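re the bet — no i am not wrong, look at it urself. input seq straight from the record:
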Amino acid sequence: MTFKTTWFLRRFMHRKSGLLKQRCDVVRLFCCSSAVEGAVAPPAECSITAERAVSLWAQHFSLHRISEPLLSSQYIISHVLGEKTLECVQKKRLRDTLTDKERETVWKLCSKRLTRMPVQYVIEEWDFRDLTLKMKPPVFIPRPETEELVGLILEDFESIRGDFQGLEVGCGSGAVSLSLLRSLPQLRVFALDQSQDAVCLTMENANRLGLQDRLEVHHLDVAKDADVILSKCNPVDFIVSNPPYILSQDMETLQAEILSFEDHAALDGGLDGLSVIRPILALASKLLTKQGRVYLEVSSCHPPVIQQLVKETMPGFIYLESCCDLSNRPRFCILQKNEENG
């Protein structure tokens, strides 16, 4: 056997030994795994650093085919250590041994993630633009694309000096309304949602952020309660919505995390994805002020359909533009009430 062959063989055996040790560490730490949905009891006596816990839980998530295993582990353990991300944790802190309480909390929260509960629900909070919002299942979790929707409204209204009003249909956790209220001190918002859980969570977040005085939230369904909405809500300068727009036939293709934990009513837009968008447009024709605008987040297949719908059935409106998200997919529709025909 040549020297080169011997060197490669030693390297291979050393690497294999290291991988075997890692796997043994995982087995040792997770030997108490329950057969029920992968729940894991914390080891009774085990010294483990935060850094090592991140690595081992990422491996365990990967073994159980949990999506984004490393990010899931990092977010949860950062949260237990009192920070948003692992980068925010001091390096020394990462190398310190977890306390008994910290270790138990890590095991408890990571066990929830093993059930495919979204990280946002596991740590019970999530950041949206400059806000940290409380999160609770089954209320819809705000996505990064929706931050761009807020940005479009701010571009159009941040220069306005006088008081003005907006309406959000489907407020969920309150992400859109509260972000707008934080950035626009002259704004008041009337928000509604078909879910009582969402209404309660929006108000909880508003109270935590001190924005409740300029926000009015109601448990109403835009498709069923249009007359009630018109009786309670004054004319508004804009309507914003991230409505359910997924086609019913596509619902089964969603991740297990979404299907198992998030409110299907906040996702399923019916056969063509427009079952909630149509009532929003009908409400807009009656509730918007002259030259008021509608901002919608939609499926990438919807902008041309909505543009044609407005052209054929809404003479009092003009379709201003479609905007793409950061992935260059057509994601947002902006309409304006036509002052001459409105």
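see?? The chain has a mean pLDDT of 89. told u. also The longest strand covers residues 288-297. so pay up
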